Amino acid sequence: LEAKELWEQFHKRGTEMVITKSGRRMFPPFKVRCTGLDKKAKYILLMDIVAADDCRYKFHNSRWMVAGKADPEMPKRMYIHPDSPATGEQWMSKVVTFHKLKLTNNISDKHGFTILNSMHKYQPRFHIVRANDILKLPYSTFRTYVFPETEFIAVTAYQNDKVRRLR
């Protein structure tokens, strides 16, 4: 995970990600550096964002607290990195950034954005799939990486001043 220190600073304060109807990019941005891939093999890099628990939250007395059961989740969308598929050598030669991934609360989104519920906690997951073709994705070998410090609560506006100031 690139900018791990920044993610950790946000995590300490309780990371909030703003989601909008029109879609909003993540901040801090999700960036990774890949190592140990087969230089000649092709890989598809993906990201998805899953519910971290089954709770709904509220910001009360300057802190997040459980406010009941989670709303039903929207069908999860995988975000395929636009450079996929590429060789291990290509992926390892640069920082891989997921800056085009956008978060929305629009349940009828037609842009392929990741649909999230406001006031719910989420965990981004990063997947490396050894495959030279998107159609082979379901049958391919993959590894999933979870960085606990990237967990966040989806909000339509920042609730926590400490997070707003850090941003």
TrEMBL record:
Occurrences of domain T-box (ranges): 1-167
Gene3D superfamilies: Transcription factor, T-box
Any one GO molecular-function label of the UniProt entry: DNA-binding transcription factor activity, RNA polymerase II-specific
Coiled coil: none
GO biological process: cell fate specification; positive regulation of DNA-templated transcription
Tree of life domain: Eukaryota
A cellular component annotation (GO) from this entry: chromatin
InterPro entries per record: p53-like_TF_DNA-bd_sf, T-box_DNA-bd, T-box_sf, TF_Brachyury, TF_T-box, TF_T-box_CS
Pfam family, one: T-box
Statement: the UniProt record of this protein carries the keyword DNA-binding: yes
UniProt keyword terms in alphabetical order: DNA-binding, Nucleus, Transcription, Transcription regulation
Subcellular location: Nucleus
UniProt cross-references to SMART domains, sorted A to Z: TBOX
PANTHER family in the record: T-BOX PROTEIN-RELATED (PTHR11267), T-BOX TRANSCRIPTION FACTOR TBX3 (PTHR11267:SF91)
Protein name per the record: T-box domain-containing protein
Organism: Calypte anna (Anna's hummingbird)
Lineage per the UniProt record: Eukaryota, Metazoa, Chordata, Craniata, Vertebrata
